[in-house]
Specification:
One of its GO terms (biological process) is ribose phosphate metabolic process. Its cofactor is Mg(2+). Residues 67-194 form the Nudix hydrolase domain. It comes from Butyrivibrio fibrisolvens DSM 3071. GO terms for molecular function: pyrophosphatase activity. The protein is of the alpha+beta class. The protein has two domains: 31-67, no CATH class; 71-201, Nucleoside Triphosphate Pyrophosphohydrolase (Alpha-Beta Complex). 21% of the residues lie in helices and 40% in strands. It has helices at residues 10-16, 111-123, 174-182, 189-201, and strands spanning 31-40, 44-52, 58-67, 71-77, 82-90, 95-99, 102-104, 126-136, 147-156, 166-173. A four-stranded mixed sheet has the order 7-4-9-8, sandwiched between helices. A three-stranded antiparallel sheet has the order 1-2-3, with no helix packed on it. It has a three-stranded antiparallel sheet with strand order 6-5-10. A hairpin with a 4-residue loop joins strand 5 and strand 6 (95-99). The longest helix is centred in the middle third of the chain and has 13 residues, at 111-123. The chain is elongated, with a radius of gyration of 23 Å.
């Protein structure tokens, strides 16, 4: 194979540098022109918005779902570096799903308190070393729902309180949890993101 030495002048590289960063202020966002309420409750509301896109195109019926409460999800570890997985009975999906404790924040409740409460209700456990990891919008194309992700360590164990929603709980080695995710054995996006984030950023 013939080879050829190529000399590159760093000045040439510097002169070709392009700043691809664009200020958020320079980006024109879609604009809501009007809103019609289709359904409204203390928990969820459904709206039809009339929206003007940056191109000028008008969307006459842009459906939006609003949840009045934010949510929390918690990845819990024990001293064996296992993760507490729960078997959720999901009516909408029509199946059992591998998940982690998660739920809504009550009015006036701090998200940390909501996290501890949800863990108690769904697993009977108390936790320590509770740490906020991130916030996510699971489906921001159609809803403004926000979920706050926490990592924690188990402090004490008890029995499941919410027997109408949680069928079982299992301490699963991290290696098995990774295999579960790799094999798509859970389709719960909230759990998938939270677990991956906790494995990377929660010090345990």
């Amino acid at each position: 194979m013939n080879t050829k030495n190529i000399t590159i002048d760093h000045k040439d590289i510097d002169s070709c540098n392009i700043d691809f960063k664009m200020s958020d202020k320079a980006i024109k966002l879609p604009e809501r022109l009007s809103r019609t309420t289709i359904y409204e409750s203390d928990y969820v509301s459904l709206y039809t918005d009339r929206v003007k896109l940056p191109s000028g195109q008008i969307i006459e019926k842009y459906h939006q779902i609003h949840y009045s409460r934010e949510g929390v999800s918690i990845v819990i570890f024990n001293d064996k570096d296992e993760i507490l997985m729960i078997r959720e009975m999901r009516y909408s999906a029509g199946r059992l799903e591998w998940e982690i404790p998660a739920g809504g924040v009550e009015k006036g409740e701090a998200i940390e308190d909501a996290a501890r409460r949800e863990v108690m209700e769904e697993t009977g456990c108390t936790v320590k070393d509770l740490k906020f990891l991130c916030s996510q919008t699971p489906s921001n194309g159609m809803t403004d729902q926000v979920m706050h992700v926490f990592g924690a360590r188990v402090e004490s164990e008890g029995t499941i309180k919410d027997v109408d929603e949680v069928a079982d709980k299992v301490w699963m080695p991290v290696s098995e949890v990774k295999e579960l995710l790799k094999n798509n054995e859970t389709k719960d996006g909230i759990a998938i993101l939270a677990i991956l984030f906790a494995l990377e950023f929660y010090e345990r």
